[in-house]
Amino acid sequence: MKKLFLLVLVLFAKLSSFGALNAFFSYASFDQPDRLPFIETYLNINGKSVKLAKDEKGKFRSTLEIQWVFKQGDKIVHFDKYNLHSPSVDSITQPVVDFIDLQRVQLDTGNYKLELKIADKNSLDPPFSLSQDIRIFFPKDKVSISEIEFLESFTKSTQTGSFTKNGYEMVPYILGYYPAELKNLKFYAEIYRTKPLMNEDYLVRYFIANSENRVLQNDLVNLKKQSPAEINVILGEIPLDKLASGNYTLSIEVRNKENKLITYRQQFFQRSNPMTVPLNNNEIANLDVNNSFISSVDDPDSLVEYIACLAPISAPLEVQIQENQIALKDVQNMKQYILHFWTGRDQNNPAAAWAAYMAEVKKVNAAYGTLNKRGYEADRGRVYLQYGPPNTITVDNIDPNAIPYEIWHYYKLLNQSNRKFVFYNPDGVSNDYRLLHSDANGELQDDAWELKLHSRSQQFYDQDQQKSQDIYGTKTKENFQNPK
Predict the structure, then answer these.
(1) Which pLDDT tens digit goes with each residue over 440-459?
(2) From CA 168, how far away is CA 237, in angstroms rounded?
(3) I want to staple 94 with a disulfide (CB 3.0 to 4.6 A). Which of 71, 89, 99, 261 is the partner?
(4) Alpha carbon 309 to chain centroid distance?
(5) Cβ distance 189 to 252 under 8 Å?
(6) End-to-end Cα spacing for the chain
């Protein structure tokens, strides 16, 4: 399952959850022997966000018009438009449960542009549109793995339908976010062409690793022996009750009998589990910091700094705990928390993980700090520490029609590709470049970002306008679409 988006009719970050209609969207691609591959699209509609109207039976339900367009270049290779209805309820005040739409589209190997449009036919709100690049690639001469589909549930089934594959009925779990009440991660994947290409039993290894430092969670590694087949189904379930809050990847590997890696697939997810990082529980309070990397640090201000700079790589609940630690400013507790944090990131060598991160913090403090902000507190510093250095940075401080800005381009960003961040400097004097827009999942998104960059030359504009007028000599659009 790939690329999660929250579709909202409010211009805001795509992982926000408010406003009018909202729905989670993701997709996964699968191969088929002797037939074209196919892509599965998943829409999870928030039942509280739809508008209801009376149907022909006197009950109330929503009606959403869904339109899918797949393009290769300017050529439309698939088009579909249909009405999607919510479950019916007896009263307009009765809550509507969330509902899922799953579609399958056969597409040949290649690169595509997906254009999705969703309109609530009972609402006056404008339809929402999304455009997304998609790549389908299953080589015929290599063993490969489908994209990983996270599941809410799976059961054996002899029936056929939208939610069944290879003898199982599966309800997709689209969010890619696992709160504390979800105790297990369930997933589905397929392995292709081991029969003609391997001709011997092989091992499937699947495991969870920290997405920031790639450290394996040693107790969450599983091995399965498989016999070669055109398609091998992998259904797995991994307990999450002891997994701390943070960003992780689920990896599936195919290895031969010599334990050589043949191929692999990864999928990003987030975990929120406050029970694993309580503020003053015995696990932290009993930690012995003697002879640890933090034992010799007794200055409370230094310890505060070491905790404060963790925010860019911390889950929201971890940030709350860190703020409490900073407020209490107890030297021993702060030492124990720092040791606990880095042991959770790298159980085998927390000192090395801490030292490597602090080296990066020094870099961002030097590059992005201001008179009243540390570099890690600035938007550029936070993005650098969270995602690593960008592949390219485009700087424009001389365009007379635009506020000074930078565009950061990442070839790969977690489980995403070709993602960009636009930072701008409204005062034009300080070093405080603020995040204006990004097309990365979960980041601030503003369709009017061009307009705001060019506000010097467009003091008066239509409030509904989202893009700046083309201005002679400016390269804003070019720099974003084709960063160098």
Answers:
(1) 877 888 878 888 888 755 54
(2) 15
(3) 89
(4) 22
(5) yes
(6) 30
Whether 471 shows a pLDDT value over 60: the answer reads: no
Q: How many whole angstroms separate alpha carbon 343 and alpha carbon 277?
A: 12
Lowest mean pLDDT: which of 10-14, 31-35, 369-373? 10-14
> Would you say 88 and 57 are in contact if contact means Cβ atoms under 8 Å apart?
yes
Instruction: Please answer whether residues 179 and 173 qualify as being in contact, where contact means their C-beta atoms are separated by less than 8 angstroms.
Output: no
SS3 267: strand
Contacts (Cβ under 8 Å, ≥6 apart) of 171:
100, 151, 152, 153, 154, 163
Q: What is the β-pairing status of strands 177-178 and 261-271?
A: parallel
Q: In 46-193, where do the E strands start and end?
A: 53-54, 60-61, 63-72, 75-85, 99-106, 110-120, 128-136, 144-145, 149-156, 164-165, 168-172, 177-178, 184-192
Signed CA dihedral, 426, 432, 434, 440: sign only: positive
Distance separating alpha carbons of residues 261 and 46, to the nearest angstrom = 41
Give tens-digit pLDDT for 48-104: 889 999 989 999 999 999 999 999 999 999 999 999 999 999 998 898 999 999 999
Cα–Cα dist 14/114, whole Å: 17
Q: What angle do CA 197, 199, 204 make, to 5 degrees?
A: 85
Quote the crossing angle between the two packed helices 331-345 and 316-328, to the nearest 10°: 160
C-alpha angle 210-215-221 in degrees, rounded to nearest 5: 90
Give the Cα separation of 246 and 215 in Å (integer): 12
